[in-house]
Write a structure and sequence with these properties.
With 173 residues, the chain is mostly beta strands. The protein has strands at residues 15-23, 44-48, 54-64, 72-79, 92-100, 108-110, 115-119, 135-137, 139-142, 146-151, 164-172. The two termini are 17 Å apart.
Length: 173
């Protein structure tokens, strides 16, 4: 196995992470203007690391199932609540999200993820490359934590049954 000159091991995952959730019927916030008000009724479990060593999510994609959806935001929360019914402001924090408003069915929206501490090799010498370009992006999910997701506004158009799918990809440690 290759190591760096400082003898540190690269980030490795034991098994792939592929998960999805269907969102839109219930809001994940009790106050749609305040990201610090998670609603247990609208939070859907996406990734569970409560009984393993953790995970890294390297992509989150929203797929619109219908055209002309209600303008809404998909929200991602990191939590220590082991069930959606125990989600509270004290044990759950908003970590990222993206706006959706589909104009065509099947439209994909990728959620921008924060930079990780893992550098991208061979990008250091180019002055046009930003600091963010020099890092991979993703979400670390520590051991004992869970990722919940939801929408800030119920999807009601084009019908009350309108939904979106959220797909997560990455790996478990």
């Amino acid at each position: 196995m290759a190591t760096s000159s400082s003898n540190k091991m690269p980030l490795l995952v034991d098994r792939p992470l592929h998960s999805f959730a269907t969102l839109g019927g219930t809001s994940a916030l009790t106050d749609s203007t305040n990201l610090n008000t998670p609603s247990p009724a609208g939070c859907v479990l996406l990734v569970d690391c409560s009984a393993n060593d953790g995970a890294v999510i390297d992509s989150l994609s929203i797929i619109a199932l219908e055209a002309s959806l209600t303008a809404s935001n998909v929200l991602i929360f990191l939590s220590t609540a082991t069930t959606a019914t125990s989600v509270t402001t004290a044990n759950t924090a908003y970590v990222c999200g993206a706006a959706i408003s589909s104009t065509s069915k099947g439209e994909r929206t990728n959620i921008s993820l924060p930079a990780l501490s893992v550098p991208v090799p061979n990008l250091g010498g180019d002055a046009s490359v930003t600091e963010l370009d020099k890092k991979n992006t993703g979400l670390y999910v520590p051991s004992g934590a869970l990722i919940y997701c939801g929408v800030d506004t119920v999807l009601s158009a084009p019908s009350a049954n309108s939904r979106v799918h959220l797909f997560a990809q990455g790996g478990f440690f």
